[in-house]
Write a structure and sequence with these properties.
The chain is an alpha/beta fold. The protein folds into two domains: about 1-30, no CATH class; about 30-200, Beta-carbonic Anhydrase, Chain A (3-Layer(aba) Sandwich), CATH 3.40.1050.10. Helices cover about 45% and strands about 15% of the residues. It is built from nine helices and six strands, in the order H-H-E-H-E-H-H-E-H-H-H-H-E-E-E. It has helices at about 5, 10-25, 45-50, 70-75, 80-90, 105-110, 120-125, 140-160, 165-170, and strands at about 35-40, 55-60, 95-100, 175-180, 190, 195-200. It has a six-stranded mixed beta sheet, covered by helices on one side.
Length: about 210
């Protein structure tokens, strides 16, 4: 037997024991209310960020939580665009969460101009404009944090470049959220349009 398959069997057995009735119901269809767009980083679990259970959150993840703009989809960059079309036009999600995170390797590579393989370099080009919005005096960790936030805002702009997303948001059928998740504290900074800044949520009661 495949070793990895064998090692993970207990997890599937526990899920079957606890959620078999729910999964049998979900086999007939899904009705998530949230689309989560996040980073593929192995340290991030959407279920740690959202109150996510099977059937509640539609998810797509990639390096640096990037959404290529609509014009890129028209040129053939369709992977994320197809997710957006399905989530908004077919599943009718009510919220899109665009979530960056602290210590993002993609943003570190972008900030330091690391030499990258062609695929990574081309992908991170969709985030490069975020560097233009950073205060010149920021350095090191503060600069990285600011870049992570700027990238979230840039990807929200890219989301709004899709006509069906812009129209759904204007009509009040869809809400867009820009978040940054802290790996250490597990708290979220959320962008508030009215204040034009990210607001840190209150510490947890532990």
């Amino acid at each position: 037997m495949d070793t990895l398959l064998e090692q993970t069997r207990a997890t599937r057995a526990a899920c079957f024991r606890d959620e078999s009735a729910l999964m049998a119901q979900l086999a007939h269809g899904q009705h998530p209310t949230v689309l989560y767009i996040g980073c593929a980083d192995s340290r991030i679990l959407p279920s740690h960020i959202l109150d996510a259970h099977p059937g509640t959150v539609f998810t797509t993840r990639n390096i640096a939580n990037i959404v290529p703009p609509y014009k890129a989809m028209q040129r053939g960059e369709t992977a994320v665009g197809a997710v957006l079309e399905y989530a908004v036009l077919h599943l009718k999600v009510q919220d899109i969460v665009l979530c960056g995170h602290s210590a993002c390797g993609g943003m570190q590579a972008l900030a330091h101009g690391h030499a990258l393989e062609p695929g990574l370099q081309a992908w991170l080009a969709y985030a490069s404009e975020a560097q233009e919005h950073l205060p010149a005096e920021l350095e090191d960790a503060a600069r990285l944090d600011a870049l992570i936030e700027a990238n979230v805002l840039l990807q929200l702009e890219h989301l709004r470049s899709y006509p069906f997303i812009a129209e759904a948001e204007r009509a009040g059928r869809l809400r867009l959220h820009g978040w940054v998740y802290d790996l250490v504290t597990e708290q979220v900074r959320a962008y508030e349009e009215a204040e034009e800044c990210f607001i840190q949520e209150l510490p947890f009661d532990v």
